[in-house]
Design a protein that fits this description.
The two termini are about 20 Å apart. The chain has one domain. By secondary structure, the chain is mostly beta strands. About 5% of the residues lie in helices and about 60% in strands. Strands 1, 2, 3, 4, 5, 6, 7 and 8 form an 8-stranded antiparallel beta sheet that branches. The relative contact order is 0.19. A hairpin with a 6-residue loop joins strand 4 and strand 5.
Amino acid sequence: MLRKMIFAAVAVGAAVGIPATGAFAAASHPDPTGMVLDLGPNQGGLPANCPFPNGDAALTVISGNAVSHLTTNKNGSWGGDTLTGQATFSENGGPALYTGHLTTWDGFGHNEVGQFEGGDTLTFHGTGVAGSLDIHANFHTTINAAGNMTANVQNVKVTCS
């Protein structure tokens, strides 16, 4: 499961290359309508009772609220995004199979010596003609100052009923 979601404030901070010595803080409330979260195929496979193949899945936001924030100073930078609202689940660019509630949160932080930590949590509960779909996923990565990954946790649970 891969998450590809960039909100305005984080993108602005990264794009202008805000120096670590300056202080900067921003928050925004972008409209997430139409945003697509590319989930890809589930690396662990799907339960046998899921009525769809393990294809290139995506969630498309149809309404909701989002907030994005970024803070930088001489010690590093920290940011995150939160989104909650209604979304559809589809596979391989096909029609919506499920419609339901989506909540997702991601955040990161890094310091001036190069240590990095980031995480992501996503939950979706949807219903469709084939029943219900629940997805819960969380990821966490830590990289030390030498550039070595010291933690890489990925948990994905998909339930179809």
